[in-house]
Design a protein that fits this description.
about 220 residues, Glutaredoxin, 2 domains, five-stranded mixed sheet, 5 strands, globular
Length: about 220
């Protein structure tokens, strides 16, 4: 093999190496871009729990964001649940017909906050909703500003996300099927036995603990 031919061969091999390296780099960049895009479009799903997910006791609050009693009671209930051991709080949408389309839209708004930003965003939206609503179907004094949730994305979700719309409607129907027609109503559930007890109205801590004690007695009395 002559030297000129050997030199040309080395140049060709080097060029092939550069092309292969560029191809690998481009492929890696595309995959990374796809992964990033997928991450940015991740959808969170409920139920939105406040407290440990594996808690034995769940307090389900059937509530309406336009309900003036819920506006007072929900912050108190949240504070109480956080102080308990082995207990969490779960929200259940029940937009009352008397509060019109405003209550439904607000339910979709906080649900969309959760879908976009997760559980923390959902509960932050709940807090803001009660702080800003005039209650009884009069709506918010100003729009929600939830950290980590883009305002345009939130508005688009409220208007166009059919899954969220169906979810709010389904929760309303489930409440009706369980005989819940007023807000706030709470349901205390033993996640070990599956038994539960329903209490209408703003039940205080003593009442909730009495319900828990009753469910424990029922569980211990089983043969």
């Amino acid at each position: 093999m002559t030297w000129p031919f050997r030199r040309r061969l080395l140049v060709v091999i080097a060029c092939i190496g550069v092309v292969l390296a560029a191809g690998l780099l481009l492929s890696s960049t595309i995959r990374h871009g796809e992964d990033t895009h997928h991450e940015s479009n991740r959808v969170n799903k409920g139920p939105w729990l406040l407290g440990p997910a594996d808690a034995r006791w769940t307090i389900v609050e059937f509530a309406d964001l336009e309900c003036p009693y819920c506006k007072t009671y929900t912050p108190e209930l949240k504070h109480w649940v956080i102080q308990q051991e082995n207990m969490n709080l779960q929200w259940h949408h029940l937009p009352l017909p008397g509060h019109g389309p405003t209550a439904i839209e607000q339910a979709r708004t906080v649900e969309c906050a959760g879908v976009i930003g997760g559980g923390q965003a959902f509960w932050s939206a709940i807090d803001q909703a009660f702080q800003r609503t005039l209650s009884n179907g009069q709506g918010f004094t100003k729009s929600l500003r939830v950290e980590g949730v883009d305002g345009q994305a939130l508005a688009h979700c409220v208007d166009a996300n059919t899954v969220v719309k169906d979810h709010v409607l389904q929760q309303y129907r489930e409440a009706q099927e369980q005989g819940v027609t007023a807000t706030p109503t709470v349901l205390i559930r033993d996640n070990i036995t599956g038994r539960s007890i329903k209490i209408e109205g703003p039940a205080d801590g003593s009442t909730l603990l009495s319900a828990v004690d009753w469910l424990i007695q029922i569980a211990n009395s089983k043969p």
